[in-house]
Amino acid sequence: MTAQLPIIAITMGDPASIGPEISLKVFQKAQLYEKCRPLLVGDSNVIKKVIEVLPALSLKINSIKDVKDAQFQPGTIDILDMQMVDIDQLEFGKVSSMAGNAAFQYVKKVIDLAMKGVVDATVTNALNKEAMNLAGHHFAGHTEIYGKYTNTQNYTMMLAHGNLRVVHNSTHVSLRQACDLVKTPRVTEVIRIANTACKQLGISHPQIGVAGLNPHSSENGLFGDEEANEIIPAIEIAKSEGINVSGPIPPDTIFPKAIGGWFDIVVAMYHDQGHIPLKLKGFQYDPQKHTWKSVAGVNITLGLPIIRTSVDHGTAFDQALKGTANEISLENAIDYAIKLAKNKEMVAQ
What are phi and psi of 80, to 5 degrees? Predict the structure, then answer.
């Protein structure tokens, strides 16, 4: 039975971040192995260091060079050891080109494994964009790395927490550029991707809501013309293809409606328009204890030939190696990867 479970390749993230800690916390849970065969791609010496400092996270380490040597047994963390980090030079909680390069190489490795069919899905811990760029890898983030190394042109980011799901017309560009990218062909493509994603998640008849770009969705042209000229034509094209889509709906009202069950997914026009409501819903801070009670949510790249889900938070260098990092988002990301892996043969029409 275990051999039939999907193999999920999980990157360690930036070695100086909370990625190694939350990975250990997730791998400690025996129920993980009832759902999948998890594999960490990273550096064994970093994991050993974290266990040394935080002995409550102790696990047996199986350091391997080939996926076929993984044991997939509770109590053991299988690590595809990339040997990218000089542990004597690593400073937890600090930006460095060494750590940035390591995090990038972990991502490249899981992409390669998935493209070759060695693993069924990939899950990424956070990397630091500054560190990655210091190492000479000039990408805006994970999404763009996956696009390049899977040779994919039409892809988008989806964020999910509970019943709230959001896809983005654009992500890591300036707000000025984001406005310029609201064009009918792109909006149409994102609606199609959103429809397919929902079906792959088991939602047979998705209801899609499209956010406007301008306040009040331009109030019939009073505050802009992107709705009339670009967004509405895209919605009409999608409707003609049989997609259940509504909009454009004012950005300040569409998300409460989605949480209330009106929509299975929302098409946001730019990065922050989609990220803010998701993080407001999933991130909960305890001001008395000065710690995060919940850092929940999943980041999924749609439109790729392989499965990629991710934590919906950053590297949190300020929490590195303190034992206080919250692993909920990583758990959520793994669960979504498992669900998508089980449904990956489904083709939406």
Answer: -75, 100
